[in-house]
Design goal:
Radius of gyration: 20 Å
Keywords: Cobalt, Lyase, Metal-binding, NAD, Nucleotide-binding, Zinc
Order of helices and strands: EEHEHHEHEHEHEEEHHHHHHHEEH
Low-confidence stretches: none
Organism: Mucilaginibacter hurinus
Helix content: 40-55%
Shape: globular
GO molecular function: 3-dehydroquinate synthase activity; metal ion binding; nucleotide binding
Protein name: 3-dehydroquinate synthase
Number of helices: 14
Function: Catalyzes the conversion of 3-deoxy-D-arabino-heptulosonate 7-phosphate (DAHP) to dehydroquinate (DHQ).
Number of strands: 11
Strand order of the largest sheet: 4-3-5-6
Largest sheet: 4 strands, parallel
CATH topology of the largest domain: Rossmann fold
Length: about 350
């Protein structure tokens, strides 16, 4: 796959780990820090270490895995490790992991000593097609997702499909939700390609195409003033359901599972508000509903989910803001909804 160029940095696909090694060796950094979690430490770090060679040239910072670790306390831990290691402004942070690592690692690097260089090495499908591209960094506060963060571009992104072989099927489906979203909001032909593919093992060509679609959007609107809002489709309701699940379920929803719920709910809102046809609503439900296990939504949780939505960073003047579809492949931003309409969308999903 060809290298993609984003806002001042390359996104490598072919021989990504070799490219990472060359980047580090040619970068003349004072010190290199590799941020991992307990999973990527076992499954991915050894691959990178084999290429890097001399362990004296880098230090490892390891945190626990999971969204619950993407908070200020763990971020302070990363900063303290950088201080203890004597990291200066010429240091490099290598974020080797999924979305939690790339989001929080990018935030930690972008704020340490007012910013040190970092690169993203996404190891999950979700982080490859979403979190690692576009310059968003962030942490959660009190279960409000990504409420603190920066827009800071990495120096490079290195996407190695081989890392996906370490993932369980549920994590592949989590990333797939963002690929489906890219088709729904941006490109009907890409959506049709996805429908015909083996989505439990998505081809590299479709992953590459998904990154191209997202990159085109973030290049045009890096700080989410207009077209980049399209990428929020499914995320207003989806983030709220995800947050509720994280605090109530023993086995919480993955990000992608929650976004799948959000896309179905917000597709219903599009059917009611912006002209999405009933046939296309049914098509979206058929595809997404066939991939993801149905989650039990009940009216007893609606008020909690709504209160979480009220804290969403996308809201304007206290109004809950959703991105919708006019049709498959065409988005419609800045649609505001009252509680009753959102509850109706939750009812739609619950009744599927």
């Amino acid at each position: 796959m060809d290298t993609i160029y984003s806002d001042g940095y390359p996104i490598f696909f072919e021989n990504a780990v070799d490219e990472l090694t060359a980047f580090i060796k040619n970068g003349k950094y004072s010190r290199v820090f590799i941020l991992v979690d307990e999973n990527t430490s076992v499954h991915c770090l050894p691959i990178v270490q084999d290429k890097l060679g001399n362990a004296d040239n880098y230090d490892i910072i390891e945190i626990n895995a999971g969204e619950e670790c993407k908070n200020i306390d763990f971020c302070i831990g990363v900063w303290k490790m950088l201080i203890d290691f004597g990291a200066d402004r010429k240091a490099l942070m290598v974020n080797l992991g999924g979305g939690v690592i790339t989001d929080m690692g990018g935030f930690a690097a972008s704020t340490y000593k007012r910013g040190i260089d970092f690169v993203q090495v996404p190891t999950t499908l979700l982080s490859q097609v979403d979190a690692s591209v576009g310059g968003k960094t962030g942490i959660d506060v009190d279960s409000v997702k990504n409420i603190i963060g920066t827009f800071t571009q990495p120096k490079a992104v290195f996407i190695d499909y081989d890392f996906l072989q370490t993932l369980p099927p549920r994590q592949i489906l989590s990333g797939l939700a963002e690929m489906l979203k890219h088709g729904l909001i941006l490109d009907a032909s890409y959506w049709n390609q996805l429908k015909q593919a083996d989505l439990h093992n998505p081809p590299a060509e479709l992953i590459h195409a998904s990154v191209i679609l997202k990159n085109k959007v973030v290049m045009e609107d890096p700080t989410e003033q207009n077209i980049r809002k399209s990428l929020n489709f499914g995320h207003t309701i989806g983030h709220a359901v995800e947050t509720w699940s994280l605090t109530h379920d023993g086995d919480p929803l993955t990000h992608g599972e929650a976004i799948a719920i959000g896309m179905l709910c917000e597709a219903y809102l599009a059917y009611k508000r912006t002209g999405l046809s009933k046939n296309e609503l049914d098509e979206i439900q058929f595809v997404i509903g066939g991939l993801y296990q149905h989650y039990s939504l009940n009216p007893a949780m609606y008020e909690d989910v709504y209160n979480i939505m009220l804290k969403d960073k996308k809201n304007i003047d206290g109004k809950i803001n959703c991105t919708l579809l006019n049709r498959i492949g065409e988005f419609n931003i800045d649609n505001f909804f009252e509680k009753e309409e959102l509850f109706e969308a939750l009812d739609y999903y619950a009744g599927l």
